[in-house]
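lol ok so funny story. i was supposed to be doing the assay writeup but got distracted and ended up predicting the structure for this chain instead. priorities right. anyway since i did it might as well share w the group, maybe its usefull for someone
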Amino acid sequence: MGIKSKLSGAKRLAKGIAKDGFAYTSGSREYSKRKATNPFTDIGFDEWKKQRLIFERRERKEQLLTPMPIDMPVFVVMVEAAGKSEQLERTKASLLKMTLKPKKVFYGQRSSMAAKMAEYEAEYAGRDVWSIKLKAGDELPSGYFFKLCPLAKDADIIYTDHELAGAQNADEVFLKPDLSEDYLCAHDYIGRSYIVKNRVPESMNEGSYEYLLKAIAEKKKILHSADTICALVNDEEAEDEEKISGLIKNVYESEDKKPAAVSVKTEGGINIADLSWKEKNKISVIIPNKDHAKDLKASLASLKKQTVYGNTEILIVENNSTEKETFDYYEELKKEKNIRVLYWKEAFNYSAINNFAAGEAKGDILLLMNNDVELINEDALSKMLSFVNLERVGVVGAKLYYADDTVQHAGVAVGFQGVGGHEFVGLAKGDHGYMMMADCVRRVSAVTAACLMIKKSVYDEVGGFDEEYAVAFNDVDLCMKVSKAGHQILYLPYACGYHFESKTRGNDTTDEEVARFGREVTRFLEKWKDELGRGDAFYNKNRSLNSMAEDRFRDLYGEG
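and the output, tada:
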């Protein structure tokens, strides 16, 4: 079953997730003197900015007293600037305050950067030279290179979060997820805030987005740090749309398993990749059902409109229905050659029901679908299939709406309010959401099983659902297992459906149901405590764990 977006019970059970009860940030135990009574408290933009300033000042003192290794990398800064200006002075001032200062700083035109970069790399031959390109007015925090230094040995590129120079509002702050190749192809979410190891001098003339797309295709190791935020002037580079489309196409054509054809179009500032494959997969759709024949009919009607329906089998798993109308409908369905009705006569257990049906499935792809979901676009399954076929991908989840056309599901943030929560709940249809995330294909830690596509081989590899989760968190647990096994989870906004949430089962209200929910929460927290402690890689740790509103931020002290 899909997890609920409001998990107050889980939130209460998950308090105090830090092992010793303190809230730690920035890697220093000196900064959080107060007990963290609630790790889910959040604060507004102004208070968050104040906290950041306090932490940066304290960190600077500590960093200046920290001895650095002799074999540390060489950092150089290339500032695109012409003549003197107030903006340039701000950039210079920020570089002078750095606790780990760059070995070289170049001020000049972009056309001169390649030659200067070649000169620096020759001077420091035999050592890794890390470079960053800035523009007049950009400012780096004092601990920028200090914090990135530990990551340098394992990366080719490191990117950070950023805000617009002089940011006054939350919508001018860009708190990014860890690397998502598909998200970067869809939208340049990284921007200019990155440093590069041993950059080929000639590439200094390339645009920042162009360079990143080439790096993805070349399988460069790209890491993200959410521990530092730089300030960049709002000076967007004009990109050649045709060139960018070609580079995105090249990214997908460089996959370990290459699509037969790739095309790219741009709509509303989002690049949409369309992948075609030679093989024709057989999809087994699994739908648990108890009564609600009318809802099941609507769900099946939307499936029959799918462009890949001819290569689809549907497994309806009957579970303790009582209404004559339901069984009459089953008799009708049995006449259709690609629909089978299976019978699960034990008590409702979503995980066990799906595992049972998966064992009966003939397809190499499984689609887990609720009986209260109606697909909207006729190519929804085709779109999901096109991305789940990528070698690196194990699971693809759809974008789901409530009946009023507001978002019900656009990915799951693990750890939100304790266990996990749906992203962008209530967002209006057509609103791209924070950093275009609601309408971009991107990596997430989990998706709802209300409409989830998974390779059958991956499902079997991880042992399917954990049947200890009878109702809640089974989909999040499944995704966590898939990710741990080395497969990516993708959220796909191009596959859309309406979800009339928990219409069949209703909500848990009895004492027994509440107790079961508590047991499932506790099991999840214990099983995934290490992952929860590290935080969701695709939900920035600076964002609130209590509210997904763009203007709410994580309290750095861990309490309100």
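Confidence is low (pLDDT under 50) at residues 1-37. The radius of gyration is 25 Å.
back to the writeup now i swear
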